[in-house]
Specification:
About 35% of the residues lie in helices and about 15% in strands. It contains 11 helices and 13 strands. The strands form 2 sheets. Strands 7-6-8-9-10-12-13 form a 7-stranded mixed β-sheet, with helices on both faces. Strands 2-1-3-4-5-11 form a 6-stranded parallel β-sheet. Helix 5 links the parallel strand 6 and strand 7. Helix 1 runs parallel beside helix 9 and helix 4 packs parallel to helix 5.
Length: about 375
């Protein structure tokens, strides 16, 4: 698959770096919207798709992408879904794609899957699993597969040791590699090392598990993890976890946000306590608040994913599976059936504030390094408020 070069440097087609989703890119021209293999974002995005689910035309079969929770992270994913609907001409195939929000709970995902199992118009489902090793979730996905519904995971996979069979493939970030890059940010910003705590919505989510592991490896032996605190996707609890961590571990000098809203939650508490000069703040994802906080000097580094391409390529793959379009499937997954050949890497950026000591050469060649002003221009180019 051709790799779009605006978003990454040196990635390979299904490799760790932005091979396919900031998808692509490194340093070239943006592919035209009608070029799905280009893996770049379109020249214009449909911001109207951010307002909510759209209604399927009468008689259309549905492709549904089910989130793990509600967060601005998913706004860009919704734009990707809307653009895929238009650019891949799903309407001509009597298909309709939607992004469906979940409430952050496994019971919410289970209820939706059970409901969809009773509806004959469901053709494909992409799911960001709230809990990777949940047997009930795996059972519901298998039942849907047996009914002929095509299943993929996006953003957060099922446990690959136990439940790899419940989906055709995973589309999203190489979360261990992305966590490793965030750990490298810590290592460069705090060469003396120190103590850190990671904050996340669900500690049992596959993306959370892999990111936390990656952070530890990237940070190295001079850093000690003191805790990994889950908040059940509750903002108030996310903030309280930061307060608790600072109380329980007075020598903390790095605070690590693993899910998109954790960064802003960390900053809120750091401001509240007036300790910005004592802690380094590194986070995942670029919610609008996180972007503003970085611009104000409150976040030292962000590893940014590509939810737009999770949505776009999730719809693209499900359409191909529903239509038995093996040509598209082979382009997206040339090594399917081989080890890790069922993973479509959407890649990541490292975004830093102006004046940061961090530099591109400190990171993997597959990771694109971008100062905040350049990243903000990128968002503006594609009519996005965050990623």
């Amino acid at each position: 698959m051709r790799i779009h070069q605006r978003f990454q440097r040196g990635a390979t087609a299904l490799g760790f770096g932005l091979a396919l989703a900031w998808l692509a890119g490194c340093a070239g021209e943006v592919p035209k919207p009608a070029d799905p293999d280009g893996n770049g974002q379109p020249q214009t995005s449909s911001s109207s798709g951010q307002s909510g689910e759209s209604k399927a035309p009468a008689g259309a079969r549905r492709i549904l992408l089910l989130t793990n929770g509600i967060s601005p992270f998913w706004d860009a994913c919704r734009v990707g879904v809307v653009d895929a609907q238009r650019e891949l001409q799903l309407g001509d195939a009597n298909l309709h794609a939607e992004l469906v929000p979940n409430d952050g709970k496994i019971d919410g995902q289970l209820a939706k899957l059970r409901q969809w199992a009773t509806q004959s118009d469901i053709a494909g489902i992409g799911i960001s699993a709230v809990v990777a090793d949940n047997a009930a979730l795996a059972d519901e996905l298998r039942k849907l597969q047996q009914q002929g519904v095509k299943i993929v995971t996006i953003d957060s996979d099922m446990d690959r040791e136990q439940y790899r069979d419940v989906r055709f493939a995973f589309i999203g970030t190489d979360n261990f590699a992305a966590g490793h890059e965030l750990g490298l940010c810590m290592k460069q910003l705090r060469p003396e090392g120190g103590e850190y705590v990671t904050f996340v919505g669900k500690t049992g989510a596959q993306n959370a598990i892999e990111r936390v592991q990656g952070v530890a490896e990237g940070a190295g032996e001079k850093f000690t993890s003191k805790d990994n605190m889950g908040d059940e996707i509750q903002i108030a609890q996310a903030q309280q976890n930061v307060r608790t961590a600072l109380t329980n571990h007075p020598n903390l000098n790095v605070l690590v946000g693993i899910w998109s809203y954790n960064g802003p939650a960390i900053v809120d508490v750091v401001r509240e306590k007036g300790i910005r000069d004592q802690v380094t703040v590194v986070t995942f994802d670029a919610e609008p608040n996180a972007i503003a906080y970085m611009g104000q000097g409150d976040i030292d580094a962000m590893v940014v994913q590509n939810p737009y391409q999770m949505g776009y390529q999730g719809v693209r793959l499900l359409k191909a599976l529903v239509e038995d379009d093996q040509a598209t499937v082979r382009v997206m997954f040339p090594n399917h059936g081989q080890e890790n050949g069922d993973i479509y890497d959407t890649g990541q950026k490292v975004v830093v504030p102006e004046g940061s000591p961090l530099r591109q050469e400190m990171f993997s060649g597959a990771t694109e390094f971008m100062p905040l002003p350049e990243f903000q221009e990128w968002l503006q180019d594609y009519d996005l408020t965050g990623s």
